[in-house]
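Amino Acid Chain and Its Fold in Token Form
===========================================
Scope: a single protein chain, as residues and as a discrete description of its fold.
Amino acid sequence: labelled as such and written in the usual single-letter residue code.
Position: the record begins directly beneath this header, with no further notes in between.
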Amino acid sequence: MQEAFDGRWSGDSHWSADLKSLRDLNHRFLDWAALRSEWPAGKVAPLTAAQREAAAGCPYALFDLRFQDDRHWQLRLQNPVSWHVADESAVDDATVRFVRLALFYAWHVASSAGFKAQLLLGMNGATAAEFRRITVNQLPALVVTEVKHLSARWSGSIAYWSALTAAASGADPVALRRVQLHGLQLAAAARLPDP
């Protein structure tokens, strides 16, 4: 846990590059969310670019593309016939670019061994296995149909997003790390079986 309070999550481990890329994706997501009218934009929009960058330093994704929904991804990744091109005119370029990067990152992380995709993205093991079965050439066909699923992770948790944005706007890096650690608890709780 000391690493968390030194401003690093896993600086010297083999996860370092994936965490740096995830931090960059989180930052892009927060920048994207700040320009939107839907949740959590109301919390993210008032943050400065530097504050959004600080908030993005979580060791897990702040965005979601239904990665916990095995059924959704099983149907999408096992049935390429259903990968039709949707009406692109309703989707802005920034959203398409972000989803393209997020899906590539998810494919990359899921392609590695272990629980990385589950820990970083909240992806279930079956979904990670489905992502491992496809090639990088199959990802572009997913982008247009998956943009409608882009959302903030834990978007229903007003308490989490309020705490994260409040801590990011403050000057206390320890308080921000505590909120970011709380996100790890949310991620772990989501992995528990339903009672």
